[in-house]
Protein backbone atom coordinates (compact mmCIF):
# COMPACT_ATOMS: atom_id res chain seq x y z
CA UNK A 1 0.00 0.00 0.00
CA UNK A 2 1.42 3.40 -1.04
CA UNK A 3 2.26 6.01 1.58
CA UNK A 4 2.61 9.78 1.56
CA UNK A 5 6.39 9.23 1.42
CA UNK A 6 6.03 7.27 -1.84
CA UNK A 7 3.93 10.06 -3.35
CA UNK A 8 6.51 12.68 -2.38
CA UNK A 9 9.36 10.63 -3.88
CA UNK A 10 7.55 10.03 -7.17
CA UNK A 11 6.43 13.64 -7.53
CA UNK A 12 9.83 14.97 -6.56
CA UNK A 13 8.49 17.19 -3.80
CA UNK A 14 8.57 17.28 -0.02
CA UNK A 15 6.13 15.48 2.25
CA UNK A 16 5.00 18.89 3.49
CA UNK A 17 4.05 19.84 -0.06
CA UNK A 18 2.04 16.65 -0.51
CA UNK A 19 0.27 17.40 2.78
CA UNK A 20 -0.59 20.92 1.55
CA UNK A 21 -2.08 19.49 -1.64
CA UNK A 22 -4.14 16.99 0.34
CA UNK A 23 -5.48 19.79 2.55
CA UNK A 24 -6.40 22.01 -0.39
CA UNK A 25 -3.83 24.73 0.27
CA UNK A 26 -3.88 27.64 -2.20
CA UNK A 27 -0.17 28.34 -1.68
CA UNK A 28 0.94 25.44 -3.93
CA UNK A 29 1.62 26.08 -7.62
CA UNK A 30 -0.81 24.53 -10.09
CA UNK A 31 1.99 22.59 -11.83
CA UNK A 32 3.09 21.12 -8.49
CA UNK A 33 -0.49 20.15 -7.63
CA UNK A 34 -0.75 18.31 -10.95
CA UNK A 35 2.51 16.42 -10.29
CA UNK A 36 1.32 15.36 -6.84
CA UNK A 37 -2.08 14.28 -8.13
CA UNK A 38 -0.48 12.34 -10.98
CA UNK A 39 1.77 10.53 -8.49
CA UNK A 40 -1.22 9.74 -6.28
CA UNK A 41 -3.10 8.33 -9.27
CA UNK A 42 -0.15 6.23 -10.46
CA UNK A 43 0.39 4.80 -6.99
CA UNK A 44 -3.35 4.42 -6.30
CA UNK A 45 -2.76 6.39 -3.10
CA UNK A 46 -5.82 7.07 -0.95
CA UNK A 47 -5.24 9.42 1.98
CA UNK A 48 -6.68 8.47 5.35
CA UNK A 49 -9.75 10.45 6.33
CA UNK A 50 -8.87 9.85 9.96
CA UNK A 51 -5.42 11.35 9.45
CA UNK A 52 -6.91 14.43 7.79
CA UNK A 53 -9.24 14.91 10.73
CA UNK A 54 -6.31 14.66 13.15
CA UNK A 55 -4.40 17.30 11.18
CA UNK A 56 -7.39 19.60 11.55
CA UNK A 57 -7.30 19.14 15.33
CA UNK A 58 -10.41 17.00 15.65
CA UNK A 59 -11.21 13.32 15.41
CA UNK A 60 -13.98 11.64 13.50
CA UNK A 61 -13.31 8.55 15.59
CA UNK A 62 -14.58 6.72 18.64
CA UNK A 63 -12.09 5.14 21.01
CA UNK A 64 -12.10 1.87 22.91
CA UNK A 65 -9.61 0.59 25.50
CA UNK A 66 -9.08 -3.12 26.09
CA UNK A 67 -7.31 -4.79 28.98
CA UNK A 68 -7.60 -8.22 27.36
CA UNK A 69 -8.53 -7.94 23.67
CA UNK A 70 -8.10 -11.71 23.24
CA UNK A 71 -10.99 -12.52 25.57
CA UNK A 72 -14.11 -13.77 23.84
CA UNK A 73 -16.39 -11.03 25.15
CA UNK A 74 -14.05 -8.13 24.34
CA UNK A 75 -13.22 -9.58 20.94
CA UNK A 76 -16.90 -9.94 19.97
CA UNK A 77 -17.71 -6.45 21.23
CA UNK A 78 -14.71 -5.00 19.39
CA UNK A 79 -15.92 -6.50 16.12
CA UNK A 80 -19.46 -5.25 16.72
CA UNK A 81 -18.17 -1.74 17.47
CA UNK A 82 -16.16 -1.72 14.25
CA UNK A 83 -19.34 -2.39 12.29
CA UNK A 84 -21.43 0.10 14.27
CA UNK A 85 -18.86 2.87 13.82
CA UNK A 86 -18.54 2.13 10.12
CA UNK A 87 -22.33 2.28 9.67
CA UNK A 88 -22.44 5.63 11.49
CA UNK A 89 -19.59 7.13 9.45
CA UNK A 90 -17.02 6.99 12.23
CA UNK A 91 -13.69 5.27 12.68
CA UNK A 92 -12.94 3.02 15.65
CA UNK A 93 -9.59 3.52 17.36
CA UNK A 94 -8.64 0.82 19.87
CA UNK A 95 -5.87 0.85 22.45
CA UNK A 96 -4.34 -1.64 24.87
CA UNK A 97 -4.79 -0.42 28.43
CA UNK A 98 -3.43 -1.86 31.69
CA UNK A 99 -5.38 -0.24 34.49
CA UNK A 100 -3.60 -2.27 37.14
CA UNK A 101 -0.24 -0.72 36.24
CA UNK A 102 1.01 2.37 38.10
CA UNK A 103 1.29 4.42 34.90
CA UNK A 104 -2.33 3.92 33.77
CA UNK A 105 -2.88 7.69 33.79
CA UNK A 106 0.07 8.15 31.44
CA UNK A 107 -1.27 5.40 29.17
CA UNK A 108 -4.63 7.17 28.94
CA UNK A 109 -3.10 10.60 28.32
CA UNK A 110 -0.88 9.23 25.54
CA UNK A 111 -3.82 7.49 23.88
CA UNK A 112 -5.97 10.64 23.93
CA UNK A 113 -3.13 12.89 22.76
CA UNK A 114 -2.11 10.61 19.89
CA UNK A 115 -5.65 10.12 18.62
CA UNK A 116 -7.47 13.36 19.59
CA UNK A 117 -10.34 11.08 20.62
CA UNK A 118 -13.30 12.90 22.15
CA UNK A 119 -15.72 9.97 22.42
CA UNK A 120 -15.08 6.66 24.18
CA UNK A 121 -16.79 3.30 24.69
CA UNK A 122 -15.69 1.71 27.97
CA UNK A 123 -16.11 -2.05 28.43
CA UNK A 124 -15.80 -4.24 31.56
CA UNK A 125 -13.88 -4.11 33.79
CA UNK A 126 -12.60 -0.64 32.80
CA UNK A 127 -16.11 0.80 32.73
CA UNK A 128 -16.26 0.47 36.52
CA UNK A 129 -13.21 2.64 37.21
CA UNK A 130 -14.16 5.94 38.85
CA UNK A 131 -10.59 7.20 38.47
CA UNK A 132 -10.75 6.53 34.74
CA UNK A 133 -14.10 8.34 34.46
CA UNK A 134 -12.70 11.37 36.29
CA UNK A 135 -9.64 11.51 34.06
CA UNK A 136 -11.72 11.35 30.88
CA UNK A 137 -13.93 14.17 32.14
CA UNK A 138 -10.83 16.25 32.87
CA UNK A 139 -9.70 15.62 29.29
CA UNK A 140 -13.09 16.73 27.94
CA UNK A 141 -14.00 13.31 26.56
CA UNK A 142 -17.52 11.93 26.66
CA UNK A 143 -18.02 8.20 27.16
CA UNK A 144 -20.58 5.40 27.23
CA UNK A 145 -20.36 2.48 29.63
CA UNK A 146 -21.07 -1.08 28.47
CA UNK A 147 -22.39 -3.35 31.24
CA UNK A 148 -21.25 -1.13 34.12
CA UNK A 149 -21.35 -2.27 37.73
CA UNK A 150 -23.34 0.80 38.77
CA UNK A 151 -25.10 3.85 37.35
CA UNK A 152 -22.86 6.87 36.71
CA UNK A 153 -24.48 10.30 36.45
CA UNK A 154 -21.92 11.58 33.95
CA UNK A 155 -22.27 8.79 31.38
CA UNK A 156 -24.87 6.90 29.40
CA UNK A 157 -24.92 3.12 29.80
CA UNK A 158 -25.78 0.12 27.64
CA UNK A 159 -26.29 -3.32 29.12
CA UNK A 160 -28.25 -6.54 29.24
CA UNK A 161 -29.84 -8.08 32.32
CA UNK A 162 -27.15 -10.54 33.41
CA UNK A 163 -29.06 -11.63 36.50
CA UNK A 164 -32.21 -12.47 34.57
CA UNK A 165 -30.22 -14.25 31.87
CA UNK A 166 -28.38 -16.36 34.45
CA UNK A 167 -31.65 -17.26 36.11
CA UNK A 168 -33.15 -18.29 32.76
CA UNK A 169 -30.27 -20.56 31.76
CA UNK A 170 -30.33 -22.17 35.20
CA UNK A 171 -34.08 -22.67 34.79
CA UNK A 172 -33.33 -24.36 31.46
CA UNK A 173 -31.26 -26.95 33.35
CA UNK A 174 -33.96 -27.30 36.00
CA UNK A 175 -36.54 -27.81 33.26
CA UNK A 176 -34.49 -30.76 32.00
CA UNK A 177 -34.83 -32.39 35.41
CA UNK A 178 -31.46 -31.41 36.88
CA UNK A 179 -31.38 -30.48 40.56
CA UNK A 180 -27.71 -31.14 41.31
CA UNK A 181 -26.22 -28.10 39.58
CA UNK A 182 -22.84 -26.48 40.22
CA UNK A 183 -21.75 -22.96 39.29
CA UNK A 184 -18.28 -21.72 38.30
CA UNK A 185 -17.96 -17.97 38.74
CA UNK A 186 -15.74 -15.17 37.46
CA UNK A 187 -13.49 -12.80 39.47
CA UNK A 188 -15.13 -11.55 42.66
CA UNK A 189 -14.63 -7.89 41.73
CA UNK A 190 -16.54 -8.13 38.42
CA UNK A 191 -20.15 -6.97 38.35
CA UNK A 192 -20.99 -9.75 35.88
CA UNK A 193 -19.75 -12.35 38.37
CA UNK A 194 -22.06 -11.06 41.08
CA UNK A 195 -25.10 -10.69 38.82
CA UNK A 196 -24.74 -14.13 37.21
CA UNK A 197 -24.25 -15.80 40.58
CA UNK A 198 -27.33 -14.02 41.93
CA UNK A 199 -29.38 -15.21 38.96
CA UNK A 200 -28.16 -18.77 39.48
CA UNK A 201 -28.97 -18.62 43.19
CA UNK A 202 -32.42 -17.11 42.51
CA UNK A 203 -33.35 -20.09 40.35
CA UNK A 204 -31.90 -22.68 42.70
CA UNK A 205 -33.54 -21.21 45.82
CA UNK A 206 -36.89 -21.22 44.04
CA UNK A 207 -36.60 -25.02 43.81
CA UNK A 208 -36.08 -25.35 47.56
CA UNK A 209 -35.20 -28.67 49.20
CA UNK A 210 -31.58 -27.62 49.65
CA UNK A 211 -30.90 -27.58 45.91
CA UNK A 212 -28.40 -24.73 46.28
CA UNK A 213 -25.03 -26.19 47.25
CA UNK A 214 -22.50 -23.53 48.35
CA UNK A 215 -19.69 -26.10 48.08
CA UNK A 216 -20.48 -26.41 44.37
CA UNK A 217 -19.92 -22.70 43.70
CA UNK A 218 -16.27 -22.21 42.77
CA UNK A 219 -14.24 -19.25 41.35
CA UNK A 220 -12.95 -19.91 37.84
CA UNK A 221 -11.93 -16.27 37.22
CA UNK A 222 -13.36 -16.28 33.65
CA UNK A 223 -10.25 -18.25 32.58
CA UNK A 224 -9.77 -21.73 31.14
CA UNK A 225 -7.10 -23.09 33.50
CA UNK A 226 -8.65 -22.00 36.83
CA UNK A 227 -12.03 -23.25 35.62
CA UNK A 228 -10.48 -26.56 34.59
CA UNK A 229 -9.19 -27.07 38.13
CA UNK A 230 -12.56 -26.11 39.62
CA UNK A 231 -14.35 -28.57 37.35
CA UNK A 232 -11.99 -31.41 38.24
CA UNK A 233 -12.45 -30.75 41.95
CA UNK A 234 -16.24 -30.71 41.63
CA UNK A 235 -16.43 -33.76 39.37
CA UNK A 236 -14.09 -35.95 41.44
CA UNK A 237 -15.75 -35.26 44.79
CA UNK A 238 -17.66 -37.87 46.83
CA UNK A 239 -20.78 -36.89 44.93
CA UNK A 240 -20.97 -34.91 41.75
CA UNK A 241 -23.47 -32.65 40.00
CA UNK A 242 -25.36 -33.65 36.88
CA UNK A 243 -25.04 -30.17 35.40
CA UNK A 244 -22.65 -27.20 35.61
CA UNK A 245 -23.34 -23.56 34.78
CA UNK A 246 -20.10 -21.75 33.96
CA UNK A 247 -20.32 -17.95 34.01
CA UNK A 248 -18.65 -17.60 30.62
CA UNK A 249 -18.06 -19.80 27.59
CA UNK A 250 -14.31 -20.17 28.05
CA UNK A 251 -14.90 -21.72 31.47
CA UNK A 252 -17.69 -23.89 30.07
CA UNK A 253 -15.22 -25.25 27.51
CA UNK A 254 -12.87 -26.06 30.40
CA UNK A 255 -15.69 -27.96 32.13
CA UNK A 256 -16.26 -30.05 29.00
CA UNK A 257 -12.53 -30.73 28.74
CA UNK A 258 -12.40 -31.84 32.38
CA UNK A 259 -15.45 -34.06 31.97
CA UNK A 260 -13.98 -35.75 28.90
CA UNK A 261 -10.65 -36.37 30.68
CA UNK A 262 -12.57 -38.08 33.49
CA UNK A 263 -14.52 -40.30 31.11
CA UNK A 264 -17.78 -38.36 31.46
CA UNK A 265 -19.85 -37.72 28.36
CA UNK A 266 -21.41 -34.33 27.65
CA UNK A 267 -24.40 -34.19 27.76
CA UNK A 268 -25.18 -37.86 28.57
CA UNK A 269 -23.41 -37.81 31.94
CA UNK A 270 -23.10 -34.06 32.48
CA UNK A 271 -24.96 -31.10 31.02
CA UNK A 272 -22.92 -27.91 30.62
CA UNK A 273 -23.99 -24.32 29.94
CA UNK A 274 -22.03 -21.11 29.49
CA UNK A 275 -22.58 -17.41 29.01
CA UNK A 276 -21.66 -14.88 26.25
CA UNK A 277 -21.95 -16.95 23.01
CA UNK A 278 -18.41 -16.29 21.81
CA UNK A 279 -16.72 -18.20 18.99
CA UNK A 280 -15.75 -21.23 21.09
CA UNK A 281 -19.42 -21.91 21.85
CA UNK A 282 -20.03 -23.14 18.30
CA UNK A 283 -16.58 -24.52 17.43
CA UNK A 284 -16.27 -26.92 20.38
CA UNK A 285 -17.99 -30.30 20.54
CA UNK A 286 -20.67 -30.62 21.52
CA UNK A 287 -21.78 -27.07 20.65
CA UNK A 288 -22.51 -25.14 23.82
CA UNK A 289 -25.85 -24.11 25.24
CA UNK A 290 -25.31 -20.53 26.36
CA UNK A 291 -26.65 -17.00 26.77
CA UNK A 292 -26.05 -14.87 23.68
CA UNK A 293 -25.04 -11.34 24.50
CA UNK A 294 -26.56 -8.73 22.12
CA UNK A 295 -23.17 -7.48 20.91
CA UNK A 296 -24.37 -5.77 17.73
CA UNK A 297 -27.23 -3.96 19.46
CA UNK A 298 -25.03 -2.87 22.37
CA UNK A 299 -22.45 -1.47 19.97
CA UNK A 300 -25.06 0.36 17.88
CA UNK A 301 -26.66 1.89 20.96
CA UNK A 302 -23.28 2.95 22.31
CA UNK A 303 -22.44 4.74 19.06
CA UNK A 304 -25.89 6.33 18.91
CA UNK A 305 -25.62 7.68 22.44
CA UNK A 306 -22.18 9.14 21.68
CA UNK A 307 -23.04 10.69 18.33
CA UNK A 308 -26.74 11.56 18.47
CA UNK A 309 -27.46 12.18 22.15
CA UNK A 310 -25.64 14.87 24.08
CA UNK A 311 -23.45 13.93 27.04
CA UNK A 312 -25.27 13.93 30.40
CA UNK A 313 -25.39 17.45 31.76
CA UNK A 314 -25.51 19.18 28.35
CA UNK A 315 -28.69 21.23 28.08
CA UNK A 316 -30.19 19.29 30.97
CA UNK A 317 -29.58 15.93 29.29
CA UNK A 318 -29.94 13.08 31.81
CA UNK A 319 -27.88 9.90 31.66
CA UNK A 320 -29.67 7.16 29.74
CA UNK A 321 -29.53 3.46 30.53
CA UNK A 322 -30.44 1.20 27.62
CA UNK A 323 -31.14 -2.45 28.49
CA UNK A 324 -31.13 -4.85 25.54
CA UNK A 325 -32.65 -8.33 25.48
CA UNK A 326 -30.43 -11.39 25.42
CA UNK A 327 -31.16 -14.77 23.82
CA UNK A 328 -30.88 -18.32 25.11
CA UNK A 329 -29.07 -20.54 22.59
CA UNK A 330 -29.95 -24.18 23.26
CA UNK A 331 -27.44 -26.54 21.64
CA UNK A 332 -26.14 -30.06 22.19
CA UNK A 333 -24.31 -29.61 25.50
CA UNK A 334 -27.49 -30.06 27.53
CA UNK A 335 -29.93 -32.95 27.77
CA UNK A 336 -32.71 -34.22 30.00
CA UNK A 337 -31.56 -35.95 33.16
CA UNK A 338 -31.32 -39.68 32.56
CA UNK A 339 -33.56 -41.93 34.64
From TrEMBL:
Q: Has UniProt tagged this entry with the keyword Transcription? A: yes
The UniProt record lists the HTH lacI-type domain at: 2-56
- The segment(s) forming the HTH cro/C1-type domain are 6-46
A Pfam family: LacI
Which is an annotated GO molecular function term of this record?
transcription cis-regulatory region binding
Q: Which SMART domains match?
A: HTH_LACI
InterPro entries assigned to the protein according to its UniProt record, in alphabetical order? Cro/C1-type_HTH, HTH_LacI, LacI/GalR-like_sensor, Lambda_DNA-bd_dom_sf, Peripla_BP_I
Key word Transcription present in the record?
yes
Q: Which UniProt keywords apply?
A: DNA-binding, Transcription, Transcription regulation
Name this polypeptide is given: Transcriptional regulator, LacI family
Question: What is the scientific name of the source organism?
Answer: Maricaulis maris (strain MCS10)
Amino acid sequence: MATIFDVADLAGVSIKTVSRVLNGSTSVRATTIEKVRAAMSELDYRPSSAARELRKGKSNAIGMLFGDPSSGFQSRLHHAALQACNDAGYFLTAGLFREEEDNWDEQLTQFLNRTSIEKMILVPPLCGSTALHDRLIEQGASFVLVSPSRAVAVAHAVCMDDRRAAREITEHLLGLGHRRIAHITGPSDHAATRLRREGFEDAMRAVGDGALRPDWIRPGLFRFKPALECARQILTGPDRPTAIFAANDEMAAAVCFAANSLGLRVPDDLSVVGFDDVAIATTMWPPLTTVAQPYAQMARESVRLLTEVGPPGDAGQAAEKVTIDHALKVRQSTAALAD
